[in-house]
Each structure stands twice: as C-alpha cells, then as structure tokens.
Design brief:
It is a single chain. Among the domains are: 135 residues, Aminopeptidase (3-Layer(aba) Sandwich), CATH 3.40.630; 144 residues, Aminopeptidase. Strand 4, helix 4 and strand 5 form a beta-alpha-beta unit. The protein is globular. By secondary structure, it is α+β, with helices and mostly antiparallel strands. It is 26% helix and 30% strand. It has a twelve-stranded mixed β-sheet, sandwiched between helices.
C-alpha cells in the first residue's frame, strides 16, 4: 500500500454534504460524485428529474460524501472533475429486538477507479470514515457488500446471511397448517400512502438485524419505481389483515409487492417478490399461500429469505423449495465494545472475558462482559489481549456474532474464536441468542 505521503502527493481527500441548486438539481460537485459511483457499479446516469430525485434522497438521509480526487488529472479525463474513489456514510438504526436498538454508521457507495487501484485509496477513505464515526459517537459501523472479500481486513464481520429461493407452485399447496386472516389486493399507490411504512415499522421493531431504509428505497419496494428510477408499471401489491380485524389500515400486519416475468422458449414464468414485510408469522405464511395461489406462473422467487425460513416446514412438499443462492448480507464493524455490547438484550445471564484484537486499533483490548437480568455491562480491563481471557477473537468475528445469527461455537470450530474451555463459546452463544431469528431485508 502506498504511504500517506504518497497518497497526499497524488490525491486530495474531500468530505462534503450533497447539495442541490434552487431548481433541485444536484450541485456540480454532487453530480460529479454521482457519476463516479455509477461508473464503479456499471449504472447509467439518470435524466435531470431522476438526478434531482436521487440528490433529494441523499439529503434526506443526511449523507456525508467522501471523495479522493487526483491532484494533477490529465486533460480530457473524467479525473478533472470526478473523484477517483467514492465513499458515503449516514446514520442507520439497527434493531436488536426486545425494544433495543443501536445507531450504526452505515457505509455505502464505495468505489475505486480501476486506473487508481492499489494506491491506498480504499484504506485511506475507510480509515478517515471510521475515525469520523468514532468522533461522531457511533459504537458500530455497518454495510451491505457487493463483494464478500473486501471488508474483513477493515474489521467487518458478516453478521447475517440470506438466501435467494424459489418455490415451485405445482408441488407447494396445500400448506400443512391452515393460515388465518384475510389477504386483499391493493394498488401500490394505496400502499405507498402510509400503510407500507407502518407495517415495516412494526417488522423493524420486532426483528433482530432489521435496519431502517434509505429514502430512495421506498419508491422501489412499494412498486412505484424500478431500480433505475424509471416508473414501475408491472408491480402488484397485497396486504394481510389478521383474524377479526376491521377496515382500519393500522390493523394490517403484512404486505407483499411482486411482478411476473413471463418465460420464453420453454423457460419458467416467474413471480418475483419485490418486497415481503410481515409484523406477524401469520401474515408471512398467509402472504406466501396467496403468492403460491396466483395462476399463470410456475415458480415464486424470493431473494430475501432467512436461513430458517418457516415456509419450508409449512409447504405441502418441502422439495418444492430450492435455494438458488446464499450470500452475506449485513456486515458489522465494532468501534466501541462497551457501548455496543451494552446496547443489546441478552437471553442468558453470565460473565465472560473477551480479548479482542483489532489491527486498526479502534476496539482492541480485553473486556469483561457481565449479564444480569438480561442486561449487559462491559468493563475494559486492558488495552491489549495479553491477559487472561475466556475467549480471544478478532474484531471482525465480534461483529459477526453480535446479532446472534452467527454462532461463536461455529467460529470456534473454524479456528476464529479461541477458547481454553469449550464451554465459553457455548455460553456466549446462549447469551447472544435473540428471541426471534435475525432477518435483514434492507440493502444500502
């Protein structure tokens, strides 16, 4: 990696807030940053209306933009105005469940121009951002990654994995247990008037691993816009009301949006779930039964399935369910061990001493975690990990186990958590086990 002096000789690191002009168009600096992100993710630049809408979302989310700019760009190159590296962060709440949550420093839009690779841009941006996160009082940073091998070296651990699945309709129904309540088809416009967000708020409050959504996410998941910002014309919506509910929209406890992609040349016609949000298990199963009852398609595809999806057990033939892909989803990076461990509830009381290594220095130290009546308190015993400890682990692995979806026992078997007594990883697993299965359906 290039030295800091070499970096400073070649690049200017600039931090700024996105802005718009009097007509709502992104400022020149903001739009140049947007162009660089689009280049990194192979996206097209929106039209004037779309660019203004995107900029308004950045401002609504109170994002902080960071760019690494070439000091001496060659004439005619985009480097004259576009940053060679991009980065943003903003506040995003993570739910632990049981009424507890923690604000995270959510990181997104990380790109480095191919012509400027291996010059220390990403490390410099990440170090700057995490130092700012500490200064702003964040206990933990978060991200969802486009590549799974980038972020562990910066102390991030994968805390939630999720699956893209398909269910073949012809073998799925009837479900093994009867569903309850009523499913009603609504328009996406009606859902977007407030009901969709209200249901998500209930899902978010009860679900460990859930995170609040970006402003720009809502028009997409509620069926108003496609991912590229163009109007969505093929999305349908339905809601679930529990048994005995009346007409009050506040009683709705689940919704789904979907589109159908017609198969060509003998391929399956696929019903693609755009968003499936549930405040109760009954709503989740009823909405699945509804989707599987829709005619003129072959399979239902859902890209946000949790690892222990109850629909597998509910299906009439569980071989109708296939996992197409499984990958990392939520990554967490601990910045303040006492603060983050003190913010969440615990299932089992007990005490453990954790020695945490951190190459970047933010979380390194030996800590004692004491849990009494489900509430944890943390005492820092030393700045290093050279004393006695029940468990030794890297900060990335502490981030991985935080929500309770990843087991310390599994990480111990992988050689990542080290313990002299095998009971210690098992105790930490029991302490961290959440009341409900973690499920993150928010990407950023």
């Amino acid at each position: 990696m290039a030295s800091n002096d070499a970096f400073d000789d070649r690049y200017d690191l600039r931090e700024f807030a996105p802005t718009t002009d009097a007509q709502g168009a992104p400022s020149a600096e903001t739009e140049a940053w947007m162009h660089a992100v689009e280049l990194g993710f192979h996206e097209t630049h929106p039209d004037a209306e779309g660019a203004a809408r995107m900029a308004s979302h950045f401002i609504a989310d109170q994002e902080t933009f960071l760019g690494a700019y070439l000091r001496d760009p060659l004439p005619g190159s985009v480097d004259e105005t576009w940053p060679a590296g991009t980065f943003t962060w903003f506040r995003k709440r993570l739910t632990w469940g049981e009424g507890a949550s923690v604000d995270t420093q959510a990181i997104s839009a990380v790109t480095v121009r191919p012509t400027e690779r291996r010059r220390g841009i990403l490390r410099r941006m990440m170090t700057h951002a995490l130092e700012r996160g500490v200064a702003e009082g964040y206990a933990v940073a978060s991200l969802t990654a486009s590549e799974g091998t980038i972020y562990r070296r910066f102390g991030f651990g994968c805390a939630i994995r999720e699956r893209a699945v398909t269910v073949r309709r012809e073998r799925a129904l009837p479900l093994l247990a009867p569903t309850t309540g009523t499913v009603t088809i609504v328009t996406p416009e009606w859902l977007a008037e407030g009901t969709g967000r209200a249901v998500f708020d209930r899902f978010d409050a009860r679900t460990p691993g859930s995170m609040v959504r970006n402003a720009g996410t809502w028009p997409i998941v509620l069926g108003q816009r496609n991912g590229d910002g163009s109007p969505a014309k093929d999305v349908r919506a339905a809601v679930h009301r529990p048994e005995g509910a009346g007409v009050d929209p506040s009683e709705i406890d689940g919704y789904v949006t979907w589109r159908v992609k017609e198969g060509r040349g003998g391929e399956d016609t696929v019903l693609e779930v755009v968003d499936l949000v549930y405040a109760t298990d009954e709503a989740y199963l009823s909405l699945w039964e509804f989707l599987l009852s829709i005619d003129l398609n072959d399979v239902v595809r859902y890209n946000r399935s949790r690892l222990d999806d109850p629909i597998v057990a509910a299906l009439g033939d569980n071989r109708a369910y296939d996992v197409e892909h499984e990958e990392d989803h939520v990554w967490l990076r601990v910045l303040d061990v006492p603060a983050v461990l003190g913010s969440r509830p615990y299932a089992v009381d007990g005490s453990l001493t954790l020695a945490v290594s951190d190459a970047m220095g933010f979380a390194a130290g030996t800590y004692r975690l004491d849990v009494v009546d489900g509430q944890g308190t943390v005492t820092r015993l030393s700045e290093g990990d050279d004393g006695e400890a029940d468990l030794r682990l890297d900060v990335a692995d502490l981030g991985a186990v935080l929500i309770g979806s990843v087991s310390p026992v599994t990480l111990a078997a992988a050689g990542l958590v080290r313990a002299t007594d095998p009971a210690a990883p098992a105790l930490l697993r029991a302490m961290l086990t959440p009341a409900r299965t973690p499920h993150g359906i928010t990407y950023f």
